[in-house]
């Protein structure tokens, strides 16, 4: 399961590291770091109705950017441009309840 959060930065360059995002080399914003707790919140809803944890992967998607540079060493967040987000579909599995 994915938590997709779009960020529109028309005709701007975006730089992403482990915890922050810079737009046109400006002041760092904690977008990448904030994506992780957001994904946990998204996972809580299905967990209310099933008896197992539901992993949710955060996916910030940058729309309209001229350049997207991901400089990360331990990034636990997938980062995409809008034209690349279709790639998430191939990663999706099927969540089923296995009865023992």
Number of strands: 6
Helix content: 10-25%
Distance between the termini: 23 Å
Outline: elongated
Q: Which regions have little confidence, pLDDT < 50, spanning 5+ residues?
A: none
| Number of continuous helical runs | 1
Q: Characterize the biggest β-sheet.
A: 3 strands, parallel
Query: Over the alpha carbons, how many angstroms does the gyration radius reach?
Result: 15 Å
Helix-strand makeup class: alpha/beta
Count of the separate structural domains: 1
Description:
- The chain contains one helix and six strands.
- It has 100 residues and is of the alpha/beta class.
- The chain has one domain (2-88).
- A three-stranded parallel β-sheet has the order 1-4-6. Strands 3-2-5 form a three-stranded mixed β-sheet, with no helix packed on it.
- Strand 2 (13-16) and strand 3 form a beta hairpin.
- The longest helix is centred in the middle third of the chain and has 19 residues, at 31-49.
- The relative contact order is 0.27.
- The mean pLDDT is 79.
């Amino acid at each position: 399961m994915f938590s997709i959060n779009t960020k529109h930065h028309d005709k701007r360059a975006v730089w992403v590291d482990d915890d922050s995002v810079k737009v046109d080399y400006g002041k760092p914003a904690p977008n990448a770091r904030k994506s992780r707790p957001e994904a946990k919140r998204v996972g809580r809803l299905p967990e209310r109705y099933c008896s197992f944890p539901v992993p949710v992967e955060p996916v910030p998607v940058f729309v309209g950017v001229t350049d997207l540079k991901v400089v990360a060493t331990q990034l636990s967040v997938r980062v995409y441009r809008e034209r690349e987000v279709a790639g998430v579909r191939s990663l999706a599995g099927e969540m089923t309840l296995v009865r023992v």
